[in-house]
Amino acid sequence: MPDGRPTPTGLEVPRWVSLKSSEVRARQGPGLDYRILWEYRAAGLPVQVIAETREWRKICDPEGSVAWIHRSVVSGRRGAFNASAAEVPVQARRDAGSPLKARFTSRSVVAVEDCADGWCEVRAGKLRGWIAGGAVFGTQTRALCEANRPAGEAG
Fold it and tell me: CA 132 to CA 89: how far, in whole Å?
């Protein structure tokens, strides 16, 4: 867990996952008896797991909101979301001076293959390229929300 104890899954926290479905209910606590706060309607949306139980994941979303979702609605596939109004350049190599391959448009999602040395390799269909790490949601290396913050609160 965030305090250094092992997690129920044995996986690191924080970590990146993505939503499997276009209908994911965000709850106030880790269980079906907790109130539904809102519903995510964006399959593939990256979220950051900041705490977990065996069945539930406490997540931080692109707006900085915290909620609990069931483990069955997340995928270990990593994605990135451009939450800004600006386009983000997708470079041919891990170098801002390398040729521009594409532009990552606002409010869109791409798959993240790997991140290293301040750059993340992204994929959209047959297109592959590199974006600067931390330029979009899903590429940061640190926890974006406090694990002890109550669900339903935005950052």
Answer: 9
DSSP string, 66-126: EEEEEGGGEES--EEE--SSS-EEEESSSSTTSPEEEEE-TT-EEEEEEEETTEEEEEETT
pLDDT digits (tens, 9 = 90+) for 98-148: 999 999 999 999 999 999 999 999 999 999 999 999 899 999 988 899 988
The tokens of 29 are what?
Answer: 């606590």
The answer for residues whose C-beta is within 8 angstroms of residue 10's C-beta and 6 or more apart is none
This prediction has a pTM of 0.89
Which tokens hold the place of 42? 């964006």
What's the number of CA atoms in the CB half-sphere (13 Å) around residue 128?
6
Q: What is the mean pLDDT of the chain?
A: 92
Name 25's bridge partners: 39
Q: Is 142 exposed, middle or buried (0-12, 13-18, 19+ CB in 10 A)?
A: exposed
DSSP lists the bridge partners of residue 69 as 57
Single out the residue of 106, 28, 108 nearest to residue 67, CA to CA.
28
Q: Which residue bears the tokens 């880790």?
A: 30
